[in-house]
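Example record used in the benchmark description.
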Amino acid sequence: MNTTLNKIISILGILFILVSCEVEVESESDIAKDDKPKIDLQNELQGKIKGDNWKYNYAVVKKSSYDGENMVYFYDEDLSDPCLDYPSKSFAFYRGELKKGKKEFSMKKTMTLYDGSTNLIITNGFMKINKIDGKNIDMTLKAYFDKNNYIGGIVTVEVCE
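Model output (structure tokens):
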């Protein structure tokens, strides 16, 4: 029953994100040099989404109930159970394989920033997984769309079961 509930919650969360918003995509060549944000990779994960300051409170890995792929969510609000709940406002997420090492974002491997109504598909930046210990993943992240939409820094991600 619990796994069925988790699957239903995951499916509803993904469907909500995909069908309830518009999508924007921008490549590295589309970004003017003065529009690139200065991202501090030495401090906790933070940035801006839609021009508003954003700082993570929780980061979790959940398995997609659709295809079993890893979904990494970065939340900026307090949730009673980050492994089961979904935020009501802005957050970021990544979908894909999680192995130690650096992955550059591209049109095939993206980060998404969600501001409550719009998905910003990020193809610029990288995710570097520094350590995996079973329950946690330590990583450095840099993802940017423009100077008003970016996140970057260090983060520990909890692996949900």
